[in-house]
Each structure stands twice: as structure tokens, then as C-alpha cells.
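Appendix B, example 12.
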Amino acid sequence: MAIRDLHRRHGHIQEVIVQNFRAKPGTLMAGHAEPSLEDHVWAIAAARLILGPEMTIQAPPNLHERVDLAPLIRAGVNDWGGVSPVTPDHVNPEAPWPHLEVLETATRDAGRTLAQRLAIGLGCDVA
């Protein structure tokens, strides 16, 4: 709610990333449970309700063990982030980005259109 209130006051929040936690060997939280897809979808839906329809909500499409991205889109995601066919996910290099064709098909199957963001690098918006 603080993000929403700040954006209403200043109009400066570009996007909100709702990224699910991944337990990684060698980190302090290596032994902690990762959230389920249902928990991630709930968090995205809550963000969409709190932040409103104008806010860009991003969720990485590579951090669940499934190609069906429809639940994330239905929950309120409208941006896949900096997905790239040539660079890895630098935060989660063990989780490769889905191929753009796979991402496009999954996005289309959910009733949306994948579009490039031509800022710095390749990003993918879900329209």
C-alpha cells in the first residue's frame, strides 16, 4: 500500500516486480520452502488489486516449472520483464528464460499479445 500511495502522490513508480522466492544452495535461506504457484498467483492478484489497473506488474516467466503462464496473466501480470534470447537471467542463472516462441504462444493462449519493449535490451510486455 505504501508503493501505491507513493505512486499516487508522485507518479514515479515504473513497475512492481512480484518475484517468487527461490531457495538456493549456499545462501542463508537455502533450506526454506519455496512458495507454490498458487501463493505466487495470490500475491500477484493482491498487488493488482492494491496498485490498480494502470500499474505495470511484472513476474518472471522462468521461475516456475511450467510453461502455462495463464495463471500469472489472469492474476494481473502485464509485463514479463527483461526476457532475452541472448542473455541469462542474472539473478537466477539456473532458470533459463523460456524461448521467445514459447513465451509468445503461452501469452497468446492466455488471450494477450507479446510485444517488445525497445528501451535498453529486450523486454516483453503482455498486452
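The CA atoms of residues 70 and 110 lie 5 Å apart. The helical segments are 2-10, 37-51, 70-75, 100-109.
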